[in-house]
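Why show two proteins at once? Because comparison is the fastest way to build intuition. When a single record is shown, students tend to memorize it. When two are placed side by side, the eye starts asking what differs. So, the first record is below.
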Amino acid sequence: MSKFFFHNHKFANENNNKKELIQSSKTNIKSVVDINILLNRVKLKKKNEIKQKVIFFSFTISAVSIFGAFITMIK
């Protein structure tokens, strides 16, 4: 699609034909997958998620307790 612009008393034709490159993927290649590596990766992800949850809840509980202590000190 061509577009015409009028700028500085000149017409410019802009044609934006972009070609998309199609990447071919080879699906015939067989690779060896070690199930133990995959299971260990899942276990590590679960451990990290549990650690993050514990840290989040501890910060939340400490923030609530500090806020409560601050409120009791004001009264």
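Second record. Ask yourself what differs from the first in the token line.
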Amino acid sequence: MTGKGSVKHNSRAFHAENTDPERAKFNICYANEDIKEVYCNIFGDAVKRHNEKQTRSDRCISDYYEKIRTGKQEKLFHEIIIQIGDMNNMSAISDNGKLAQKILHEYMQSFRNRNPNLYVFSAYLHMDEATPHLHIDFIPFTTNSGRGLDTRVSMKKALENQGFKGGTRSENERNQWVYSEKEALSKIMLNFDVEWEQKGTKEKHLSLLEFEKKKRSEEVDQLEKEIEMIQNTLNKKEAMINSIKVNISKETQELKSIKAKKVKIESINNIEAKPAILSNTKVVINKKDFEDVKTIALKYIAFDEDKQNLARQIKAVSQENQKLKGELYQYKSVKNRLTISGLEAEKSNLQTQINKITRFIESMGLKPQLENFLNQKIGQIR
């Protein structure tokens, strides 16, 4: 069978519940190379040739390993698991289990010769589980490619290079190759007087090992979908925080404008008025001061209108923020599952800005509703 593979599990960097650590000494390691170094060795020259041809920097490849890891076209590597029989007829602690070990060892010795386009960087024969089996992790590659890198990752092209041409859906390159490998194994088995009983591929014939691997693969797929949903939610919240920053910036400018108007209004107190000649009820002021008073009066009317408009805006934004509270609650629960240090730093910066605005509001003595509005924003970001 084929699967996503777990190099750490195969190398016994940790022991699962179905392994016996006391029998781990009977395991055999055939290959254990660092996959990133292997990528450099196989594709490094091809990446260099590719980048030298590019006239735009955004089309250059800085790290081919990361390009494949984050892409959706190909997998970083593939894994096949080879097992003969099951725990009932090829138990690892029985004589038949030792026979299976010899057969699998011989199969592994010839695997690379049969598959020159599948670079094996990790391979282990496990004797510490119920039934002996092989894990072979490999990177499929093709050379002399007409698009992209001239040497690149491709399972389809790698198998085509080895003579497996796609036909019908059930007879594609992979299925042809899998059957060919089974035939190669069956020939080795015959040398040890073990015949291949072909049981088909229905679910009811899956061995215990295959069932566990299949279940693990399904769990990984589900986790990947969950992570993608969480990341999308976080992206939306980051966009919302950026929007709040823009709103705060606009409000800061409006408050500065209001403060300037208030200062001009207060300057009226400094105008000196003198009693008019021949009149006890009239006063005389400087012509320039009169013009200033007239201008300030008109601006005061505009200032009053601004306050009313601002009050209406506060009401509208408050209603909008009420809708966002539910979304933010979900964000806070998601935030505990992923570490976003940049988001925490952003929160701190916003808090500093809000504190400055709060002090500014207090110095101006504006209506309490404006202060309540900003307090709502503070609670929202927290």
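One difference worth noting in the second protein: The first strand starts at residue 2 and ends at 3.
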